[in-house]
Amino acid sequence: MAVKFFGQFLVGQGVVTSEALLHAIELQERTNLKVGEMALAMGYLTADDIERAHTAQQTKDLNFGDMLVELGILSTTQLQEVIARQKATHLYIGEALVKVGALTPAKLDACLADFKADQAPYVADRIELPAGLPNQALWETTVDMTYKMITRVLGIQFRPGKCQEVSQLGPHEMIAGMDFSGDANARYLLSVSGRLQRTIAKAVLKEDCVDHEPQEILEDAVMEFVNIVCGNVVAKASQSGTALEITPPMTIHPPENGLPVPDGYCALLFPIHVSEDDCMELGLFIKKP
Amino acid sequence: MKKVLVVDDSLSVARQLEKIINESGDLVCVGHAKNGAEAIKMNHSEDPDIICMDMNMPGMDGLTALRSLVVLDKTVKVVMVTSLGGVGDKFTEAIKLGARNVISKPFEADNVLNILRTL
Question: Is A222 in CB contact (< 8 Å) with chain B?
Fold first, then answer.
């Protein structure tokens, strides 16, 4: 019940051993060249050019290929050729497992079908976000994953509210948060009432009653739920080439008038209506470009 | 009885794992460390057969601790428990460093026990 890497799925199902998977990963690493490596192999640039583009990336937020064009090292046409060659020669993990003899092509097809069925609950539906927001697909995935985990992990039925741009979040009993960094920078926040905090703790701890649990455990359970959601968002994002890091989760007790949005960030609020008189809020504080 | 050390900064996750392990009948939880540094100390004092360790922890994280543990103790078997298990790079890094398996969160008791019993 989580987003999985296909190799991890196969090891978990006992279809291949971790040793075979490691051989396949090593084959993939030898075969699949990065943009710079491929451009070097095609004679379009030098090792010094790669180093220069890496250094430039430290001060400007561009992906490596775009940086090569920005610096005048590659033309747009050359970059397209490099990317096309990358795609044409890319070895997927399943193909690599066949090449190392750990799977037959027929078994691979069957496992891919099983994997797709296992992962089907995590395929995102379209969620409307404000126009012009950077990394739209990532934030759609984040919201969608939150909804799916609320249903699957917490077992809560809810009605998602319309996305709003806000200047503050809350106030509620507590807010659990986690920071994303890497290809996108944002703070993920889940604001919950005391009643929902206990509901989440019951689900996370798999207990029928949490009335006697200390506040520390109740808050920890909400943080762990946020950790699960964000970890799965990072996994899903990595499958589409977006690299993110997350920090350990945190608890925030918002001031009485709500948690203000820091300067330089835009804030999206997604109300999650659990009942007529109870609601949690998903907040995304997204760093402006 | 195989001895298992749980390493997780989350009290709720540690409690779930301890419960699953102690109710298994053939595994016993010998302690709970809250970060990688504590895990290394408790591996020395408790001498577990298996360590179930979170990747993303404040202080010394799980992968850093794993690097040290595989050098300091050639016999202990480490399984990473993480919400990042589905990230190909993280999974690969853990396996390359010597982790025997990676359990993705949220997990089910049967899944955890199946993995621990095969070590």
Answer: no
Query: Given CB atoms, is A150 within the 8 Å cutoff of chain B?
Result: no
Q: Residue B51 belongs to what domain range?
A: 2-117
Residue in chain B nearest A238 by alpha carbon: B87
Provide block-wise average pLDDT over 10 residues at a time, chain A (289 residues): 73 91 91 92 93 69 82 94 92 95 96 86 65 89 90 81 84 88 95 92 90 93 94 87 90 85 92 78 92
Contacts of B85 in chain A (CB under 8 A): 2, 4-5, 8, 231, 235
Q: Work out the angle between the directed axes of helices A194-205 and B11-22 (0-180°, nearest 10).
A: 30
| Omega cis (within 30) before A130 | no
To the nearest whole Å, the CA of A96 is away from the closest chain B CA by: 14
Domain map (residue ranges) of chain A: 6-121, 127-287
Query: Which residue reads 């577990």 in tokens?
Result: B48
Number of domain units in chain B: 1
CB A17 within 8 A of CB A24: no
CATH number for position B86: 3.40.50.2300
Determine the CATH number of domain A127-287: 3.40.1550.10
Q: What are the residues whose beta carbons fall under 8 Å from the beta carbon of A199, sequence distance 6 or more?
A: A154, A156
